Amino acid sequence: MAVEAIPFLDLQPAYRAAQPAIDAALLRVAGSGWFLLGKELAAFEEAWARSCGTAHCAGVANGLDALFLSLKALGVGEGDEVIVPSNTYIATWLAVSQCGAKPVPVEPDAQTYNLDPALLEAAITPRTKVILPVHLYGQPADMDTIMDVARRHHLKVLDDCAQAHAARYKVRPVGGLADVSAWSFYPGKNLGAFGDGGGVTSRDAELMQRVKVLRNYGSEKKYHNEVKGINSRLDEIQAAVLAAKLPLLEAATHERRAIAARLLEGLAGCDLQLPHVPHWAEPAWHLFVVRHADRDGLQRRLAEQGIGTLIHYPVPPHRQPAYAELGYAEGDFPIAEAMHREVLSLPLWPGMSELQIERVIKAVRASC
């Protein structure tokens, strides 16, 4: 009898856990006759800001827009430079480019995979305007050190929190640590909508008002446009779904941490580089990422045993054709390049059974 395959990610348990609240929310919006910039969005924005330990939230259409609108609200434009990680999803870089600014890559810490604060000052120039760290895979970046560097150089910090819902840094929730924080609520995120969605959080009321104006065609009053904005609004359906799922996020995060602990214990001693967690970090475990010298072979062997995996990410931004104009060559960012050759994400989601976790552990141990 064939053994049931284990997918990389299964979103059905998360839906079933919140199904009564989600279904009620969908019907409530459908019957309301109001689908944009309404009560559902306002309620979610207030709840999400509170969960992030900050004062303000603006729902937007997706995570890329959250980054772009945050940068625009910070005044980033043509000729500016923004410091970014050399290893991240390309959306972090694209947001900078959309502002007309230049992404300036900085290598990560080889253990945490997050931007190395010790390398920041060497990358700062008179054109630097913002530092943009990413809490990659749900692991908090070293924000106190990054903020210290930024303050010394009179720079702003925008952190990319797209993978870090409910992560904590030195007990404090991610989302209220920087000048402004950008979120993705893509369906596969730890707090995911039923389509694209994003958000911006900050303690700065004036900055957040700029984001809200920019997301709505540059308009604060209908048909009166103060600035050149875009159309980027988190709709009422997505806001209602997110609000319905939010009360379960903390329990789901605890479950992710328990599964990660089982994987760390079960894979100890394997020929793998396992995730490293600093003592001050409480990751959200959006992804459980290992490294192996024969990553592609490992992925193939796991697939033969019915274990789904993904690569986050196979090509670093500086080696993408989209950024050929920057002139970077192979070897310019060796730490990031080695990671992108070797990283492999294993299955981890709330609702995984003990049997599924054991099968993943046994398959990896037999394959590495």
Number of helix segments?
A: 12
Helix and strand pattern: HHEHEHEHEHEEEEEHEEHHEEHHEH
The helix/strand class is alpha/beta
Oligomer: single chain
The profile of the biggest β sheet is:
7 strands, mixed
Helix content: 25-40%
Distance between the termini: 25 Å
How would you characterize this protein structure?
With 368 residues, the protein is of the alpha/beta class. The protein has 12 helices and 14 strands. The protein has helices at 12-32, 39-51, 63-73, 91-98, 120-123, 143-152, 205-215, 236-245, 249-266, 295-304, 334-342, 354-367; strands at 56-60, 81-85, 102-106, 128-131, 156-160, 168-169, 172-173, 180-184, 198-202, 219-221, 224-225, 281-282, 288-291, 343-346. Strands 1-9-8-5-4-2-3 form a 7-stranded mixed β-sheet, sandwiched between helices. A hairpin with a 2-residue loop joins strand 6 (168-169) and strand 7 (172-173). Helix 3 packs across helix 4 (91-98) and helix 9 packs parallel to helix 12 (354-367). The two termini are 25 Å apart.
Short overview:
By secondary structure, the protein is α/β, with parallel strands linked by helices. Helix content is 38%, strand content 14%.
